[in-house]
Amino acid sequence: MNNRSNKFIPLIISLSLIAGLLLGSFYANHFNGNHLSIINASSNKINDLLHIIDDQYVDKVELGDLVEKAMPSILSELDPHSSYISAKDVENEMQDIKGSFSGIGVVFTIYDDTARIVRVIKGGPSEEVGLQAGDRIISVDGKNFTGPHITNDSAMSHLKGPKNSKVVLGIHRKGSGRVYKYTIERGDVPVKSIQAAYMLDHQTGYIRIGNFGDTTYPELLAALAQLNQEGFRSLVIDLRGNRGGLMAPAIRMANEFLPKDRLIVYTQGRKSPRSEYSSDGRGSYQHIPLVVLVDEISASSSEIFTAAIQDNDRGSIIGRRTFGKGLVQEPIQFPDGSMLRLTIARYYSASGRCLQKPYLRGQDNDYQMDLIRRAEKGEYISQDSIHLKGKKYHTRLGRIVYSEGGIMPDYFIPEDTTGITSYFIQAYNQGWMSRYAFIFIDEHREKLDKMADWEEMVQYLSRQHLPQKFADYAAGKGVKKRPNLLHKSYQYIQSTLISLILDDYYGEAQRLMFMNQKDPNITKALELFKEGKAFPQAPKEQQK
Known about the structure:
Blueprint: E1 2-3, H1 18-21, E2 26-27, H2 33-41, H3 45-56, H4 63-75, E3 83-85, H5 87-98, E4 100-103, E5 106-111, E6 114-120, H6 125-129, E7 136-140, E8 143-144, H7 152-159, E9 166-172, E10 179-185, E11 187-190, E12 194-199, E13 204-209, H8 216-229, E14 234-238, E15 245-246, H9 247-257, E16 263-268, E17 275-278, E18 290-294, H10 301-311, E19 316-319, E20 327-333, E21 339-349, H11 364-368, H12 370-377, E22 392-394, E23 400-402, E24 411-412, H13 422-429, H14 432-448, H15 454-462, H16 466-475, H17 483-488, H18 490-505, H19 508-516, H20 520-531, H21 540-543
Parallel strand pairs: 1-5, 2-15, 13-14, 14-18, 18-19, 19-24
Antiparallel strand pairs: 3-21, 4-11, 5-6, 6-7, 7-8, 7-9, 9-10, 12-13, 16-17, 16-21, 20-21, 22-23
């Protein structure tokens, strides 16, 4: 069961959310039991301290709670990406990696003290029993489930659960005076890595990848097969907002596009011997013109794939400087189900560069402020404000690239801040725009259900004067009307509300199709394909 996710607002608008985006994860495929035995058997000051506290401290102390609180503090003294995950949070943390989770399969929102179903996930248990978008969950297992105590976390805890376990929901459906009872057997709910795959024009395919997990590579092959049937001759891979995940899918992806014997990435650490990963020449798309889109959130496995393409001069990179994560974490599970992610190595691209941005041990807060500092310096709107200080390296053709601080794209596209005002930021960050999108669908569902596709819906929504209607709604919630700022933000609010409505009604793919229509990154990619410039060229001094 997923919470609502809207990822299209530019970073500069949602700086308050950056802290949650900074912790991009880089996983290995297997746990290492040897580390566990060392941890469990060791005798040191920490163990002695716990024994002393348990034996002599003036008050009774729950040592388990003390350890849970101490673990993150200890790891924070190592690097920004070594971390501890409590047993209760492991499943949530791993669902993107595994490609599924156990639940009832709905996207919901909390509105007026009630959990309301925004969308039923295809292939999930709720679709099988007949739950519908717009349904209100008013009871769970015979107990009332409405009121101010209902939160996202409480709804998640009641609706998720072990596979094959059952939950009975009381449902109020708009337009009906009765309460429907549904017994749902929890099951695997798919979490797709690929958010969209479609044709941008008659010959250009587009694939948006949200994360790198167990199912990413098979999903990619299926998406490529679909686009192949539609006749694509060039390809855009969109990794914007992708914080990474498993390394193996990124390597296998790169292998699909690289000629034989091209180095993709290598890893090395104090106790981890150098391991190299190279292409085997079996990739089916070694010659197709390729563009990769990235931004400041693109990290970890996203950067492994992007650097492999850039360092081997296989395609062009468009967007903004990537996050800069070059540390490899190994997941280590404890007997109680909790997990440690310990940095064991660094990864290096084909040119030999490590993309990890600088950090000081024990100063995670400073590290996490990096994206905000980039915004303050104007990096997202001006390439001239970017000054890379890392060591110089060279691609196969001799183009200069830099280590440290992420990947600088071949073509910089500034963030469009036109129409961004304090009114828009307040309305969006406080959640009023998301709420209004749900209300609009709820009030117009019968009409929307009759529309043929998302494009017809966009035409209809464009005639509904959504910004004015939203401003009236928000004013009733305490967001002061500001006509001048509303006028300045009109088009931005319009496109944002349409995007939210499409996301709620259809899902991520249709939202992306709408947003990509006027995306300057997409426009630049299509321009490169048209001009035959997707493949990088050697520096001019080498062409003489």
